[in-house]
Amino acid sequence: MRRISCVSAVCVALLCLPALANAGTEEEVIAVTYAQWAAEIANDADGSVAIMADDYTEFNPDFPTRIDGKDLNTKLSAALAEGGGQMLAGEMANAKVQVYGNVAILTYNFLGVNKDSDGEASPSLAKSTRVYVKQNGNWMLVHANFAPVGDDD
User: What is the predicted pLDDT for the residue at 13?
Assistant: First the structure.
């Protein structure tokens, strides 16, 4: 009887391990995202792209096509920043992380505040998806899709 109890305890523990590992992964992926936003708020261009893989791709409402590559994304982001706009705050609501081995998908509703070139603050809203891959021990952003939230939503 004691042997069955030990075997049962080991089985239950093994079944719980993936959930515990995923909980840590969820926290890591969300923390990486907040760190990127903090770098963006601080105008730290290098810090804001540090988590992007070289072959990063992105869909966003500013451009009608997919943006291919970290270099192009950095160039376009720098050009947009020249206009004087700046992210003041960012928060994620309804965050969900799905983990599949070394891949993590983060979906959330972005709630932010941006300042335009005239100094006026306005809300920034998006339905967001980020795909991360764990490479050399680090969660690297390989794809993102930032969809606008508008009157039709």
Answer: 45
Residue 88 or residue 139, greater confidence? 139
Distance CA(7)–CA(19), nearest Å, equals 20
What is the residue whose two structure tokens read 């005239």? 118
Distance between CA 35 and CA 85 in Å, rounded? 20
pTM of the model: 0.80
Is the CB of residue 95 less than 8 Å from the CB of residue 106?
A: yes
Decide: helix, strand or coil at residue 72: helix
Tokens read off for 25:
């992964």
Domains of the chain from N-terminus onward? 2-148 (3.10.450.50)
Q: What is the DSSP string of 86-111?
A: EEEEEEEEEEEEEEETTEEEEEEEEE
Runs of H (alpha helix) within 42-69: 45-49
**Is the pLDDT reported for residue 1 higher than 70?**
no
Q: At a CB cut-off of 8 Å and minimum separation 6, what does 120 contact?
A: none
